[in-house]
Amino acid sequence: MTMQRPFPAATSSRLPDGVTIQPREFDWHDLESVPQYWFAGNAIISHLENAFSILIPPGERFFIRSVRHYEDRAKDPELGDLIRAFIQQEALHTRAHNQFNASLRKFGVDVDQEIAYAERFITAMGKYLPKKMQLAATVFLEHLTATGAHVLFSVPEVAETMHPAMLRFWRWHAVEELEHKSVAFDLYQQVGGGYLLRVFSAIATILLLARPFDKIARRMIKADPNQITDEMRQQAREINRKVMGPQLRMIGQYFKPGFHPWKCKDEKYLAEWYASAEGA
Ligand SMILES: [Fe+2]
Ligand SMILES: [Fe+2]
User: Fold this and answer.
1) Which of 170, 182, 201, 206 could pair with 136 in a Cys bridge, judged by C-beta atoms 3.0 to 4.6 Å apart?
2) What separation in Å is there between the alpha carbon of 26 and the centre of ligand 1?
3) Who contacts 151 (Cβ-Cβ below 8 Å, separation ≥6)?
């Protein structure tokens, strides 16, 4: 099914051959069919991913604000157009995640409480962190999401345990994260962002965001009246092991002084998705 393309694609010699930043609208026509335990039929993994999804809308608004603050200082018009498409993609992701998050109400999740908590936490980051550090945090979180996107495609035996509607949703989001993964980084470099602030902000961001993620996930698991079985715990550990190895290696690359997001090769996954029925 072809996705709506409400905005033009941004192209640039900064992007690998065949890659553009194309904002696409996700159509949730099958949201009603998504079961509560949509990831491998496993309650733990599904709650963890749902907690991540709750953090995404305020997180993406934080990214947009941090990039907007510096966009006037982009030194070339091409980067300006990539920023435009990046902002449009993130805004469309927020809309689709809001729709998914709202659907969790029918499983008894206190969505309003969790959203309000996530909003408060990330708003405080926007209020108290220096602007350059906010941009550096965005650079890191864009890399983190790109590593998640990479493993979605590189470990298909895990991804394919998702309900088909959720796999379509996460693949769409992953593709766009890969397309725009270097935009915040290139802007950060153009405005004079250095290595030390980049790595310091990455460590600070991990420490800061671990708390709301953990708290939301724990509350969701605790509020779920269904029993978590030992079998589920074992399965969650196995999935984690398959995904975290490659993801941690890619996260480690971020701490090299010569890091650039496109040094992690994702062009193959983008080309495959573009050629698929979803990406056509
Ligand atoms: Fe996104
Ligand atoms: Fe992103």
Assistant:
1) 201
2) 12
3) 158, 243, 246, 247
